[in-house]
Design a protein that fits this description.
Strand order of the largest sheet: 1-4-2-3
CATH superfamily of the largest domain: Conserved hypothetical protein from pyrococcus furiosus pfu- 392566-001, ParB domain
Radius of gyration: 35 Å
Number of helices: 12
Largest sheet: 4 strands, mixed
Low-confidence stretches: 1-7, 9-21
Shape: rod-shaped
Mean pLDDT: 83
CATH architecture of the largest domain: Alpha-Beta Complex
CATH topology of the largest domain: Conserved hypothetical protein from pyrococcus furiosus pfu- 392566-001, ParB domain
Order of helices and strands: HEHEEHEHHHHHHHHEEH
Number of strands: 6
Helix content: 40-55%
Length: 294
């Protein structure tokens, strides 16, 4: 077993320089498929297609045992979910299994993760889900990195892409984009309406991460420019539509003047004061004319 597995199944804090832990006791045996519980607690694979695997097993037989542990009188599957499904599809009655003795829940999680990480077709999105599971178990980023044999930066990217839009996660799982690309798309808050076009462009033109960054920067500049123009237009329309002081009517009887002042528009103070002074002068003149006639 790998150092990562020993760290996972141990309850101690990981120490890369410490001697390896003893392996959990196990034995190889043939189990009746009917004795396997219908339980997916330790299933970390997103891909569940079994057609190709069933064809291979039919031709060569089962070459890799499943991992299981005994629970009461039946067996809980730890890894090998697709192999079990393929054998059932083929109408087989038994499965080759490595049965682990006295395996607790934490150890079972570690075993399932360690076994899956060794598979070449284990996608980056599935590795991200594993990283999150380990984080949920209380492991620090550095500990997760040791457990899955990846750098701290890679683990940080794994955890970040889980918050990306589903379209990005699907593309990562299908291998259309790399982990670094998914990370960039996750942290740039890309408009969802343009994500599909960006991913298609990356795939069709086989773009690099640097090229993707340039595309995102260009789109951000255009978006920021459009936003400034939109805001300026709103402010212009707002200034045109709002009249702080307005002469409603004027005739031989008098005039009606409406004043509107908002604390958020201090620039309206000067025209309001000017208009009021003009109105006040006119009223003072009217008052003087009335007094003279008396």
């Amino acid at each position: 077993m790998s150092k990562g597995f020993h760290m996972l199944v141990s309850t101690d804090k990981p120490n890369p320089d410490s001697p390896p832990h003893k392996e959990v006791p196990s034995q190889i045996m043939m189990l009746p498929l009917s004795a396997i519980l219908d339980d997916n607690t330790f299933q970390y694979r997103i891909t569940t297609a079994i057609a190709a695997l069933a064809t291979d097993i039919k031709a060569r037989g089962q070459t890799t045992p499943i991992f299981a542990r005994l629970l009461d009188t039946r067996y809980q599957l730890i890894s090998g979910f697709r192999r079990v499904a393929a054998l059932r599809e083929l109408g087989q009655e038994k499965v080759l299994a490595r049965v682990f003795q006295e395996l607790n829940d934490t150890q079972a999680v570690g075993l399932a993760i360690s076994e899956n990480l060794q598979r070449e077709d284990f996608s980056d999105l599935e590795k991200a889900m594993v990283s999150q599971r380990l984080k949920d178990l209380g492991l620090e980023i550095e500990e997760i990195a040791i457990a899955i044999n990846r750098s701290v930066r890679t683990v940080q990217q794994y955890l970040a892409v889980l918050h990306a839009p589903q379209l990005v996660k699907d593309a990562l799982h299908e291998g259309k984009i790399s982990l670094s690309m998914a990370f960039e798309l996750a942290r740039k808050n890309v408009d969802k309406s343009t994500l599909s076009d960006i991913i298609d462009k990356v795939t069709q033109e086989d773009l690099s991460v640097r090229a993707l960054k340039q595309i995102l920067e260009d789109k951000n500049r255009i978006t920021a420019k459009d936003s400034r123009h939109t805001q300026a237009g709103k402010e212009k329309r707002g200034r045109a539509g709002f009249q702080p002081i307005r002469l409603i009517s004027r005739d031989s009887i008098g005039f009606d003047l409406v004043v509107k002042f908002r604390q958020s528009r201090p620039e309206d103070l000067a025209p309001i004061i000017t208009a009021l002074r003009t109105a006040l002068k006119e009223l003072e003149q009217k008052e003087a004319d009335v007094a003279e006639k008396r």
